[in-house]
Design goal:
Blueprint (H helix, E strand, L loop, with lengths): L1 H17 L4 H23 L3
Length: 48
């Protein structure tokens, strides 16, 4: 649940630092983190 609260301001701050032209790249990075986090959660919670 913290992701929904922290993602908006963090993305806004990243856009502020890097400029508007970096928005597609930033969104691509965020999109790449989502499947990586999902795979990590699946592997870490998988029962042996």
């Amino acid at each position: 649940m913290i992701g929904g609260v922290a993602a908006g301001p963090a993305l806004g701050k990243a856009i502020e630092w890097s400029g508007v032209r970096a928005v597609p790249l930033l969104l691509c990075g965020v999109s790449a983190l989502c499947p990586a986090a999902t795979l990590w959660l699946i592997r870490s919670t998988r029962s042996s």
